[in-house]
Every structure is written in C-alpha cells, then in structure tokens.
Design a protein that fits this description.
Elements lengths: L1 H8 L4 H16 L3 H19 L11 E8 L3 E10 L2 E11 L6 H13 L10 E3 L7 H12 L4 E3 L4 H27 L1 H15 L7 E10 L2 E11 L2 E2 L5 E4 L8 H21 L4 H6 L10 E5 L2 H13 L6 E6 L4 E3 L14 H35 L6 H11 L2 H6 L2 H5 L6 H13 L5 E2 L6 E2 L1
Length: 448
C-alpha cells in the first residue's frame, strides 16, 4: 500500500487507471454489477483528482524544476515536481549560507541533499536548474546511476520549460522577501540583532537609532549620497535624506563620505543649538537635531577613516561608527587593523546588511533621477533654436526625451510654439544623437 501511494504521488498514475478499468470490466463480465459500479466511481474520482493537477509541460515530461533567490547570507529554494507533464507537488525552504559560495556550488549542494536519500523512482528524467551546478558531469552520472537510466541536468532555454522556470523563480523571490519581512518584523529578533551589534562594537547600549550612508556615481558624474535611518531595527523612511555631493571632483568615495558626514552633523549641531518650537516639531524641520547612536558607512577602512575624520573635526564623540564592506560582509571599526567578526548567520549581521542594502538602493534611485534629469536637459539644450520655454513645452507634452524621440515630425509640430522647420530640426537632432547605454561601474547596472 505504501509503495503504491509513493508511486502514485511520484506521477505513476496510468497503471492505477488501467487497473481500475480492468477490475470494472472483470466485475461486469461476472455480472457483479455492484463491484463494477464501485470501481466506476473510483475511476471517476481518480480522473477528477488528476484533472486538478495542472498541465504545465505539454510533452508529458517527468521533471523537477529548481530555482533560488539569494543574498549574501541566505537563499530561498523552490522546487516544482512535474510528472507526466502535470504538477504533482511543490516545496520551498530557506537555507543559510555558512560560507562564501557561488550559485554553481549552491546548486550542486542542493541537488546532492535533495536526491541523496530518495528512492530511485523519485529521481525524474530531467532536472531543470537556473545554472548548471559545479561538477555537472559527476552529478549527472550520479543521478543517472541512482535512477537506473539517463538523467539530464540542464538549464531550460525556451518554451514551456523556460516559462515554468520563470514561475518557480518568482516563487523563490517572493519566499525570500516574505522570510526577510517576517524576520525583520519580529520584536525579539530585532532586539537580539541590536544587542549583538552593541556587543560586537563595544557599545554600552543597543543602537536604537542607526544611520547608514552610501555614495553613488557614474565615472565621477552626478555624485550623490544617501542617508537611511533605522529605529528599533525598523526602517524610518520619513527620516531618509539624500545629498548631492558638491565639493568633490571626480570619483572619490572617500572624500564624498567625508563631505556628507560633515554636512549631516553640521546640521545636527546647528539645529541642536536652536530653541525648539512647536511648529518645527510638527513640520519635521528639526529632524537633523537628533543624533544617531551608530553611524554605518558602506565600505571598508578608507571610508570609515573619512567618516571618523569628519566626526572628529566637528567634535562629535558620542556616536559609534563602523563600516560594512560588501565583498566579505566585514565589519570595520576606526583605527582597527582587522575587522570585527560577526557570524554569518547572526541577527546582528543580518540587520547591518539590511541597513546597508537599503542605503545603497536609496542612493541608486536618487542617482538615476539626477542623471536622467541632467541628460534630458543636456540633450534638448544642444538643439539650435530650442529655447527654455519650448523645451518646457515639449517635456510637458511628451513627458521625456525618449517619448519625443519616438514621436513623428507632425506630433512634435503640434507642440505650442514649435513650427514645421523647428520640428524637423528637433526630429533630426534626436535621431542623430542616440546615447549609448550607461553602466554603473560599481554595480554593473544599466542606467536608463
């Protein structure tokens, strides 16, 4: 009975259908109509159950589809089990990365764990993965030997299988986000994280207010920085601030950090000396008056040293400081030769990583906004005969340079103040000056 159940759940349903059909026919031939009727009802129930299993692969393939979404500390895994082209099951879980591991190695470890203790019938003919595992040939041979016939481990490239992989990947991404949200929202977990940070950094009390700073630029142009605020371990988005870096030439993250930290704490000192008013409290104009317990900068020893210099120059002595370097998730303190060790699975490191990533996201979004505005202005300013009022009219009508470029001459001509000749000049200028896509050298992102 147990073996039959396992075979049915693994997708071997055809033999059960045939068995019921044969039993129904045999009972009918022996004029045992009650038994035949029961087998008929069993067959109908089985077919109804099978109809509820959605057909996801049209070629009736037996396959397991793996996908994962990960960050530096954790990975969410999702598996869809497909038998005979139909969905037979789904599993998902979150694993901690106890060491620095790439996607190829992670996939290899995952397949080894999933199929290590299963019966041969549970190994499908195809295993679809987002990236070929490390030691692909060895794992394929091991799975084939375990199944007793050839098994293919491959990345789907087109059709139903690629579409199904995209669905499984979305599930994994949603599972990771849900896991992070639940983890961040738990009061006990947040308290533990703050306590671990305080202990690792030698702070007398938990850092109830953390401010993190990050710099974003593209080859030294449109340099911006962000300041995000976490209070009691939760993002306080109304307190976020962004800075356009003005006193630094070129790509110099260290000098940019010094400038931004100096500006933030000069505002703090100035507002702290002002007499608080009810109007200022209500409108939020004194938010810089509240100092953080901990300042985190995105970077290693050079960025930390620049932030320390800025605080020292302003006489700020009661604010703790550390840096979080991306490559190995190392926590750096001012003047220390070696980083502080925070376990990769600790709540403290997870919170610092979340704060740093939020600062990076906020800086990138501001950088894109400024760069897009600068590109829009510069492209239109280069068109002869197109003054400020006509540029404004074009942007009001079309919304962006991209949409102006996509418009026909007659559409451009319909803009107030733009005649036939100027419309043709605008059209020609925009089609002769298509910009190459810009790439953020720090992140590899293509900037629209």
């Amino acid at each position: 009975m147990a073996e039959d159940f396992c075979a049915f759940m693994a997708g071997d349903t055809a033999r059960f259908t045939r068995s019921l059909q044969n039993q129904m026919a045999a009972a009918s031939a022996e004029l045992d109509f009650e038994t035949a009727a029961r087998r008929r009802d069993d067959l109908l129930a089985l077919n109804r159950a099978l109809e509820k299993s959605a057909v996801v692969l049209s070629d009736a393939t037996d396959a397991d589809v793996f996908a994962l979404a990960d960050d530096e500390l954790e990975a969410a895994v999702q598996v869809f089990h497909v038998r005979g082209g139909r969905m037979r099951g789904q599993r998902g879980w979150v694993v901690e990365k106890v060491e620095e591991v790439g996607t190829e190695r992670l996939i290899g470890q995952l397949l080894t764990q999933v199929y290590g203790d299963v019966e041969p019938a549970a190994v499908p003919r195809e295993v679809l993965v987002p990236t070929l595992p490390a030691e692909h040939d060895d794992i394929t041979a091991w799975l084939s030997d375990k199944r007793g016939s050839k098994v293919r481990v491959r990345v789907p490239q087109r059709g139903d299988k690629k579409a199904l992989m995209a669905t499984v990947t979305r599930n994994a991404e949603q599972a990771l986000n849900l896991h992070k949200t639940r983890r961040a929202g738990d009061l006990t977990t947040r308290s533990q994280a703050l306590s671990e940070i305080a202990g690792a950094l030698g702070m007398a009390e938990s850092p109830l207010r953390i401010e993190c700073f990050d710099v974003s630029n593209l080859n030294g142009s449109a340099v911006v920085a962000s300041m995000v605020v976490f209070e009691d371990g939760l993002a306080r988005k109304s307190e976020y601030r962004r800075f356009a870096v003005k006193g630094v030439d070129g790509q110099d993250d260290v000098a940019s950090i010094h400038e931004v930290i100096s500006r933030r704490f000069r505002r703090h000192l100035a507002e702290a000396q002002q007499a608080p008013s009810q109007d200022a409290e209500l409108t939020g104009h004194r938010r810089f008056a509240y100092p953080p317990n901990l300042v985190v900068v995105d970077g290693g020893p050079p960025q930390v040293a620049a932030a320390e210099d800025a605080l020292t120059e302003l006489g700020i002595q009661d604010v703790a400081l550390c840096g979080l370097a991306k490559r190995l998730e190392e926590v750096w303190l001012p003047g220390e030769e070696y980083p502080v060790v925070l376990g990769r699975s600790t709540q403290g490191l997870y919170l610092l990583q979340r704060v740093r990533d939020e600062a990076h996201r906020f800086a990138i979004s501001y950088h894109r906004q400024r760069r897009s505005k600068a590109m829009t202005t510069s492209v239109l300013e280069q068109i002869p005969g197109l003054g400020p009022s006509r540029r404004q009219a074009l942007l009001k009508r079309f919304g962006s340079v991209k949409r102006i470029r996509a418009a026909e001459v007659d559409d451009i001509r319909a803009t107030p103040g733009v005649g036939p000749a100027l419309a043709q000049v605008i059209y020609d200028a925009l089609h002769d000056s298509r910009p190459e896509p810009a790439v953020n050298t720090a992140t590899g992102e293509v900037l629209d």
